[in-house]
User: What shape does this take?
Amino acid sequence: MRPLACATAAALALSGIAAPAEAAEATTKTVYGYAWSDGQGRLRITPKSASFVKQKGFLGYRLKAAPRAKELRLDYSRAAYGRITVACDLKETEGRVAVDRKGLGRTRCSPRDLSAELGRGPVPVRVEHRGGKATRVNEFVVADRPDQRSARGTIKRIDDTTVVFASGGKKIKLGYTYATSFYRTTAHCGSGWLTGRPVNADANGLGKKPCTPAHLTKALRTVRHPVLVKIEYTPGADSLDQVWEVFGDA
Assistant: This one.
């Protein structure tokens, strides 16, 4: 049967018709969610359930968790990129939004502009992708963006911008950026996790010395096990916004 299958595939190729596996690979798919940087020219996104919202001049999308959705990693180095800002180099909309009738960013920008935006944090986007590559990325405005939540638990390093937060038997993958706040119990920002006396711990054992995300990365590199923390994070966007080192995690 193998010679027959090979002959069939060859005939399809010669006739310009893709074989089933090739056709599946060539199918363009669309996902909505928050994109995070995953290295140079790459992004990661966990697909969300999206519903279009059009009311009182607002055009955007409401996002909800999609059951059994798996994170995608995509190359966007040659993708078309549509921003909701009126110019590609703006950090904020500044009160002027450039969207089409479907609520998608229509200012034509480059993959380099997308890299700059991902460097600032998670970006709500609609992504068309095929064969592991994003072909089109469009920003959109999120309706009913969830408020920050506060929680205690443990975090464990995945890489220099990502951790797993565990609490009450649940685990959440969270990303952090240059805007994330980190408060330490240690004497110095650059010390290892819980190194030395807790000279900067408050009455509840929480760190109170303000440090940078780079210090968080450096401290997490010194431990291989999960460490106790208090955090503030944004559900849906899976953004780690503030971290407090907790004294007592010896």
Notes: The first strand starts at residue 29 and ends at 37. Residues 88 and 113 are 6 Å apart (CA to CA). The radius of gyration is 22 Å.
